[in-house]
Design goal:
Number of strands: 10
Strand content: 15-25%
Order of helices and strands: HEEEHEHEHEHEHEEHEH
Strand order of the largest sheet: 3-4-5-6-7-8-9-10
Helix content: 25-40%
Oligomer: single chain
Shape: globular
Structural class: alpha/beta
Largest sheet: 8 strands, parallel, barrel
Radius of gyration: 20 Å
Length: 284
């Protein structure tokens, strides 16, 4: 096959080997694995999880998964040009066949609506990315894993209520209702109040989905808000994700507009692959 063919085949095998140990199947919080260096010593390689969001077709879902995306996000909101609520199952199935975890992204809707959409699509993950969707958190059963999105302004300040604040407000409201109904005998059970646990905290800019960056270097990341860590979103693409990871060391990164073609709807395969490769280089 010639020297060039052997070299190309070897590079392909190396890329596949990287995916094998840096993207384990299942759902760990952060990709880490040991590998032997060229000097025979063992080293630990880690990279942030990669989420490609705003995927609208089964073809793009499969492509993103095969390129190395750990999560594939699907917008389930009719106000978006990327809305796929009516075909979410088809897109989700394609993502799963490629080895990725599909995520339904919500801006509005009650907990009942969110759960119903996830169940119909065969999806275990819901991303709460709007005020109404975030307010639904306390009533979403734990069988649905949650990515909770918050916004940060140019000064790096979080301007969105955190999960615990949403649940505290929910519990206060329920306690007030119960007290009004029976002020003497009714005691609210604060320990069994609304759900507090989320898998991931996702930090975006104030104009979520705009593809605009924000003050990364000033960002004050909330601690202890999620089980698996936090993801960075907002204007990320192949050209700046490496700097973002080096600056903030997030546990995951999320890209939508930055890996889309000129339409802003379909994904650009070369951008998706370049994005994943840029993230993988941060672990080298």
């Amino acid at each position: 096959e010639g020297l060039r063919g052997i070299r190309r085949r070897g590079m392909g095998m190396q890329a596949q080997a990287w995916r094998t140990f840096s993207r384990p199947r299942g759902d760990p919080g952060r990709c880490c694995a040991s590998a032997s260096s060229t000097h025979g010593t063992s080293q630990t390689l880690c990279r942030p999880r990669v989420k490609v969001c705003g995927v609208t077709t089964p073809e793009d879902a499969r492509m993103a998964a095969e390129a190395g995306a750990d999560y594939v996000g699907m917008i389930c909101w009719r106000g978006s040009k990327r809305d796929v609520k009516e075909k979410a199952k088809e897109v989700a199935d394609a993502a799963k066949r490629g080895g990725s975890i599909p995520v339904c992204v919500f801006v509005d809707g009650t907990a009942q609506d969110i759960v119903a959409t996830c169940e119909e699509a065969g999806v275990e993950y819901a991303q709460l990315h709007g005020e109404e969707a975030r307010r639904a958190l306390p009533d979403i059963p734990t069988k649905i894993k949650v990515i909770y999105a918050i916004s940060a302004d140019e000064a790096g300040n979080v301007v969105t209520p955190l999960p615990s604040q949403v649940v505290d407000e929910y519990n206060r409201a329920k306690a007030a209702v119960q007290k009004a109904q029976n002020p003497v005998t009714t005691a609210y059970d604060w320990m069994s109040g609304g759900r507090r646990t989320v898998e991931w905290l996702l930090i975006d800019g104030v104009r979520a989905g705009s593809g605009e960056t924000f003050g990364w270097d000033k960002l004050k990341v909330p601690k202890g808000c999620s089980r698996k860590g936090w993801m960075l979103a907002g204007g990320l693409g192949p050209d700046n994700v490496g700097v973002a990871v080096a600056t903030l060391h997030p546990d995951g990164v999320d890209a939508a507009t930055g890996v889309s073609d000129q339409s802003g709807v379909c994904k650009d395969e070369s951008k998706v692959r370049a994005f994943v490769q840029a993230v993988e280089r941060t672990a080298a």
